[in-house]
Specification:
The chain is α/β, with parallel strands linked by helices. 44% of the residues lie in helices and 15% in strands.
């Protein structure tokens, strides 16, 4: 089969939707090579996905489509897909173009989350309207909908009334760089670059209100282990002010370190040396950082109430993300009980087997066959 993908994010986004898009395309080209795969993107100038075959990258053809690339993705791309014999089109980031059914092109869309519906106060009204239109329209027009977690599937059924049988839950994995456990010397060398000397709790994720890092700082202030530190890694937003205020309130300036612009190749070492990975986001569609921690053989503390228990499984402990004392209690348990940490690491190894790229590629390929028929 000839399968096309809305791959804009694969070539333009360093994290999130970009990681998912690259994961899907890499998994399919490696493990399901009986099909032909074509990545459609308005631009390919950032060198974010050099491993994808350049001859299979498709750009807008006409001068007008190049100038109006958003409209090309939304509508005009359908004629190009038809001309190039695409049989199935996969919208990797919550949307698909108009006109696919009219041109007898089967379609599937991946919906990552409905956070803007669950936590509307975190989004501008205009953005919510745009997202709602795109997501609903894609779900209505696609032959099948992929949800990246059971939580997202429940949200689609509840909020958008998508029929249960139309949705397939197909997970994803994190980057393969987290699968390699580094030698002690290599880890020490990278930690020295960031002057990390104490045992530490790690949290990786954009510094934004939904990720709840200020409450993690509050919980960290209540732990018994005063010889440890907390490391927050992520892109800053205005919420950083609230985090810094919380650090100052509890006089933790010497025990909380905030790092930005950490190269992805340094992250495995930082994950692997952490005592605990803490990720108490209030709401997520999935939880890739948790998989990164489990591959790094680091026990996880995460939040109850969304999909994070799916991501971490038996490899983590969980707490109500809005109850600081509960988070602090679980964090204390993990930092003081070596046997518990060992058991969680071993359970995590078994849990992440379901996220292997080969298995997911096979699930995707089977789905493409079904909708093409």
């Amino acid at each position: 089969m000839r399968i096309g993908f809305d791959a804009k994010r694969a070539f333009a986004n360093k994290t999130g939707l970009g990681n998912y898009s690259r994961f899907v395309l890499e998994a399919l080209t490696r493990y399901e090579d009986q099909n032909e795969y074509f990545a459609y993107t308005p631009k390919n100038k950032q060198n974010l996905f050099p491993s994808f075959p350049v001859e299979a990258v498709r750009l807008p053809e006409s001068w007008l489509d190049k100038q109006l690339s958003s409209y090309w993705r939304y509508a005009n791309i359908s004629s190009q897909l038809s001309k190039e014999g695409i049989q199935v089109f996969h919208g990797l980031s919550n949307e698909i173009p108009l006109g696919l059914a009219h041109r007898n092109i089967s379609s599937v869309v991946t919906i990552h989350d409905l956070i803007f519906e669950k936590l509307p106060h975190l989004f501008k009204p205009a953005d919510r309207l745009i997202y709602r239109h795109k997501f609903r329209s894609a779900c209505d027009r696609a032959d099948r909908v992929i949800a990246v977690s059971e939580q997202t599937k429940r949200d689609l059924v509840e909020l958008y009334k998508v029929e249960n049988h139309k949705i397939d839950v197909i997970y994803q994995d994190c980057s393969p760089i987290f699968r390699n456990i580094l030698p002690q010397a290599a880890r020490d060398e990278i930690l020295a670059l960031y002057d990390i000397q104490m045992p530490y709790v790690l949290c990786v994720g954009t510094l934004e209100e939904r990720k709840n890092q200020h409450r993690l700082v509050e919980a960290f202030a209540g732990i018994d282990q005063k010889d440890s530190c907390l490391i927050l890694i992520g892109k800053p937003t205005g919420y950083l002010n609230k985090i810094n205020e919380t650090i100052a309130k509890y006089k933790l300036q010497n025990r909380v370190k905030i790092l930005q612009n950490v190269p992805s190749e340094h992250l495995p070492a930082i994950y692997q040396r952490a005592e605990v990975f803490a990720y108490i986001s209030v709401y997520e569609g999935f939880g890739i950082p948790i998989l990164e921690a489990l591959h790094s053989e680091t026990p996880v503390l995460s939040a109850r109430g969304s999909c994070l228990e799916e991501a971490g499984g038996a490899g983590g402990l969980y707490a109500n993300p809005l109850k600081t004392e509960e988070v602090s209690h679980q964090l204390n348990r993990l930092l003081t009980d070596h046997s518990l940490r060992y058991d969680l690491v071993e359970a995590g190894k078994r849990h992440i087997e379901q996220f292997e790229a080969q298995k997911i590629a096979a699930q995707l390929s089977d789905l493409y066959k079904k909708i093409a028929q």
